[in-house]
């Protein structure tokens, strides 16, 4: 079990950074907040001027605070090893510490360094990096899906993507604590002894599958509360990506079932017909301004299900690495817009009609629709109908970094939040089959006392509710059940489902085979475009160190020392 040293590492003078190992790098990040006076530390939000000023035209080391989770807590190590998992480490390349990339924002070019960390798939930080990569790829696809038509919004409303968080009643949280209620459904058996590929036997105890059924019904109800304003004879369809979270991000040892939905507020034809002649002409012109260069090959792995949902195996394959370069930027951008317009017409792209006020969605109706769906599914365990909380947040097209954040957050792994919690509240898991749940109750009680002393009404209500839930779990569940719940969270992969045109998103992409268009990796700081140079560096010479924490950024002036 690796323990972090509190002694700050010996690093190179001023702004030249290099580390011997992952432990020294993590200790440096812990040491930075103690030097905030000397380093002129600044806290910034998305799109803030101070954040852009430190980045645009400068060289920065960009990390997130989750790097600390690359060295798991002792509590998490107990959970892993109690399940026979011994490979959960991560490593910083001791020779080439950093990856290098270039960010382009208008006429300005910036350098970005990031830590070159690899590791085992069970490691919480490595799991988080996978979510970041998937979110980045999906963000690029959504930029293509929105197309040229969505950029010039004539109604003055710049929000194109809607983030909807739908909650489940608290009684579902208690049932999901029961290991028997987390058993997934099996494929239905046919009369001839085979298995039906799509229909599942979802019994009354399959809580996760029943929540998934609610998500499917929610998608079918979209047209009831989003004013599409289309001809009913036109077969247009929405898209939706939905991720099921069973835990609370702040205190994950307590269940908190809810769903993160991302809805692009535009539609496509259910059965698109391509105008191949126009599109083929544009693609042939694109091939003249894009040069592809073979750059060897690499091994990739993915999880594949065999037969049943519980039988998952990792398959390793080798793929070619092809680097693409644009030789005429202006011509490339022009052709990309032409392709977007042609594809939008072929696929009958439509955006929602906007009302004059800022909320075109009837929030009250949305809550009623979701609450009806959940009650219809769970009335066998719900005493009464209740109006459930639904939270909305708009994501403007112009704020691509916020869209990127939403996509990454909704697929975040529960093991990451578990490790973050154990670092704040250690010694909850005391062995390979034992825990001290009173530590959790003491942690919540302490935060409640702080909230009361500060007269913070929202936090008082929140921690009072959490304390009641924690006490109820302690009184109604065995330590074995709670330990089993924590084991489940340490290995569970967030359940993401896609609906509508998102189910076959390639069909609606500008370049489904990735032959011509270069994937645009969105910069989480300035909304610019990031290009990986493929260079790994022994040293990072930077002007600023930027540590990202959810939607906040902490900026440290590396030139000031530390």
Description of the structure:
It contains 16 helices and 24 strands. The chain is 34% helix and 27% strand. The chain has 562 residues and is α+β, with helices and mostly antiparallel strands. The longest helix has 23 residues, at 124-146. Helix 5 packs across helix 12, helix 7 packs antiparallel against helix 11 (363-378) and helix 14 runs antiparallel to helix 15 (457-476).
Using brief descriptors, characterize the structure shown:
disordered N terminus, alpha+beta, five-stranded antiparallel beta sheet, eight-stranded mixed beta sheet
Q: Can you list the strand order of the major beta sheet?
A: 2-24-23-3-6-5-21-20
Helix content: 25-40%
Catalogue the unreliable spans: 1-14, 151-157, 196-200, 305-311
Number of helical elements: 16
The span between the termini is 28 Å
Task: Give the helices and strands, then pairings.
Blueprint: E1 16-17, H1 22-31, H2 36-39, E2 42-45, H3 49-55, E3 59-64, H4 74-81, E4 90-92, E5 98-105, E6 108-115, E7 117-119, H5 124-146, E8 159-167, H6 170-176, E9 186-189, E10 195-201, H7 207-220, H8 222-225, E11 236-237, E12 239-247, E13 255-264, E14 266-269, H9 276-286, E15 290-305, E16 312-326, H10 329-346, E17 350-351, H11 363-378, E18 390-396, H12 400-410, H13 414-424, H14 438-453, H15 457-476, H16 479-491, E19 495-500, E20 521-522, E21 529-537, E22 540-541, E23 544-549, E24 552-557
Parallel strand pairs: 3-6, 3-23
Antiparallel strand pairs: 1-22, 2-24, 4-7, 5-6, 5-21, 8-13, 8-18, 9-10, 11-14, 12-13, 12-19, 14-17, 15-16, 20-21, 23-24
Helix pairs in contact: 5-12, 7-11, 9-10, 13-16, 14-15
């Amino acid at each position: 079990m690796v323990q972090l040293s509190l002694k700050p590492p010996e690093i190179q003078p001023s702004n030249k950074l290099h580390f011997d190992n992952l432990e020294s790098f993590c200790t440096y990040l812990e040491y930075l907040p103690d030097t905030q006076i000397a380093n002129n530390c600044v806290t910034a939000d998305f799109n803030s001027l101070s954040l852009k000023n430190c980045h645009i035209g400068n060289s920065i080391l960009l990390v997130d605070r989750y790097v600390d989770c690359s060295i798991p807590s002792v509590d998490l190590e107990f959970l892993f090893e109690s399940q026979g998992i011994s490979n959960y480490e991560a490593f910083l390349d001791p020779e080439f510490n950093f990856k290098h990339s270039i960010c382009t924002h208008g006429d300005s070019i910036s350098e970005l360094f990031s830590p070159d960390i690899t590791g085992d798939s069970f490691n919480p930080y490595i799991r988080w990096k996978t979510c970041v990569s998937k979110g980045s790829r999906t963000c690029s696809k959504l930029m293509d899906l929105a197309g040229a038509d969505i950029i010039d919004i004539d109604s003055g409303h710049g929000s194109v993507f809607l983030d909807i968080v739908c909650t489940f009643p608290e009684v579902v949280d208690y049932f999901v604590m029961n290991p028997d209620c987390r058993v997934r459904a099996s494929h239905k058996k046919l009369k001839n002894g085979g298995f039906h590929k799509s229909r599942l036997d979802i019994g009354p105890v399959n809580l996760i599958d029943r929540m998934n059924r609610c998500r499917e019904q929610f998608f079918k109800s979209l047209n009831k509360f989003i004013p599409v304003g289309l001809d009913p004879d036109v077969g247009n369809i929405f898209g939706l990506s939905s991720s099921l979270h069973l835990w609370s991000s702040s205190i994950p040892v307590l269940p908190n079932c809810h769903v993160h939905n991302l809805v692009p507020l535009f539609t496509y034809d259910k059965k698109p017909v391509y105008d191949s002649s126009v599109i083929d002409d544009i693609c042939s012109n694109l091939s003249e301004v894009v040069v592809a260069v073979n750059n060897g090959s690499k091994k990739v792995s993915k999880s594949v299900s065999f037969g049943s949902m519980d039988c998952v195996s990792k398959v390793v394959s080798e793929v070619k690495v092809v680097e693409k370069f644009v030789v005429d930027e202006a011509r490339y951008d022009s052709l990309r817009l032409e392709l977007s317009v042609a594809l939008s017409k072929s696929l009958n792209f439509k955006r929602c009609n906007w009302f004059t006020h800022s909320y075109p969605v009837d929030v009250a109706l949305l809550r009623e629709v979701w609450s009806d769906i959940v009650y219809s599914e769970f009335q066998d365990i719900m005493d009464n109908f209740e109006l459930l909380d639904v939270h909305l947040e708009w994501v403007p097209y112009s704020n691509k970094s916020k869209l990127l954040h939403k996509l990454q957050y909704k697929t975040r792994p529960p093991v990451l939040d578990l490790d973050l919690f154990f670092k704040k509240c250690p010694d909850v898991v005391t062995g390979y089959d034992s825990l001290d749940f009173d530590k959790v109750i003491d942690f919540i009680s302490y935060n409640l006392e702080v909230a009361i002393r500060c007269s913070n009404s929202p936090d008082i209500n929140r921690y009072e509710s959490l304390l009641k839930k924690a006490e109820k779990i302690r009184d109604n569940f065995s330590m074995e059940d709670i330990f089993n719940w924590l084991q489940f969270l340490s290995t569970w992969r967030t359940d993401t489902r896609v609906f509508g045109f998102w189910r076959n998103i390639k069909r609606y992409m500008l370049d489904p085979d990735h032959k011509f268009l270069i994937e645009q990796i969105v910069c989480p700081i300035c909304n610019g475009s990031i290009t990986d140079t493929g260079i790994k560096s022994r040293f990072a010479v930077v002007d600023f160190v930027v540590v990202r924490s959810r939607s906040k950024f902490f900026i440290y002036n590396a030139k000031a020392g530390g």
